[in-house]
Amino acid sequence: MEDSYEKRLVEKLKGGCRKSFRKLFDTYHQKIYSVSRKMGLQAEDAEEVVQEVFLFIWEKRERLRSENSINAFLLIISKRLVLKKIRKNINNISLDLFLDKLKGSVDNNTEDYIIFSDLEAYSHIGLNNLPEKRKQIFMLSKQHGLSNDEIADKLKISKRTVESHLYKATKAVREHLEKEHINSDIKRRTGNE
User: Fold this and answer.
1) Which of 6, 67, 124, 143 is the most buried (most CB within 10 A)?
2) Are residues 140 and 154 in contact, defined by beta-carbon separation less than 8 angstroms?
3) Given CA atoms 61, 67, 72, 77 in this order, what sign does their dihedral have?
4) Where does the record place the RNA polymerase sigma-70 region domain (predicted)?
5) Domain limits of the chain?
6) Sign of the torsion angle spanned by Cα atoms 87, 91, 96, 100
7) SS3 per residue for the chain
8) SS3 of 126-152
9) CA distance between the termini of the chain
């Protein structure tokens, strides 16, 4: 994109011009998607990054500076969002692996069974404190194994709303477990300190 054209586009966008926003999207969305994929995201996550980048641009359009490269700015935002999503995925995978390991290590040993039962009970207490819609979405995902798209279709809500509820639910349960000192208690009992 030509430098002076890019500057005019950004100036119009700052004023709320939807056509300029659309032109910017049409010009850069594939590049952002490709960068996200090259950084290791799955197609669905890369599409979310594209949406989040352009949502950010639209919401912050008045603060854009036409003298700066919009291309560089979009790539910086994209890379930050990709790294954030990768960190989130790692945290979710770590929690799932920990729970799978804990579940897999539970045998007839009474102490292991008690630890697992305590963790499950505290998790349910944390789940029961969630708003009803958030709890429903969390259960559809974690207990019934539905994808975010399937949950969105089933509940007639957006996929983004599903993701938001899942993030908040996971955070609330994790905070509840930390508040109850479950994580440190489990590590102490299992010798994983």
Assistant:
1) 6
2) yes
3) negative
4) 24-89
5) 3-86, 106-190
6) positive
7) CCHHHHHHHHHHHHCCCHHHHHHHHHHHHHHHHHHHHHCCCCHHHHHHHHHHHHHHHHHCHHHCCCCCCHHHHHHHHHHHHHHHHHHHHHHHHHHHHHHHHHHHHCCCCHHHHHHHHHHHHHHHHHHHCCCHHHHHHHHHHHCCCCCHHHHHHHHCCCHHHHHHHHHHHHHHHHHHHHHCCHHHHHHHHHCCC
8) HHHCCCHHHHHHHHHHHCCCCCHHHHH
9) 55
User: pLDDT by residue (tens digit) across 159-193?
Assistant: 999 999 888 888 877 776 666 554 444 445 445 44
Take residue 13 and report the two structure tokens written for it: 């966008």
CATH of 106-190, one of 3.40.50.1000, 2.60.40.3550, 1.10.10.10, 3.10.20.310: 1.10.10.10
What is 3-86's CATH topology? Rna Polymerase Sigma Factor; Chain: A (1.10.1740)
pTM, to two decimals: 0.48
Angle separating helix axes 18-38 and 43-59, nearest 10 degrees: 140
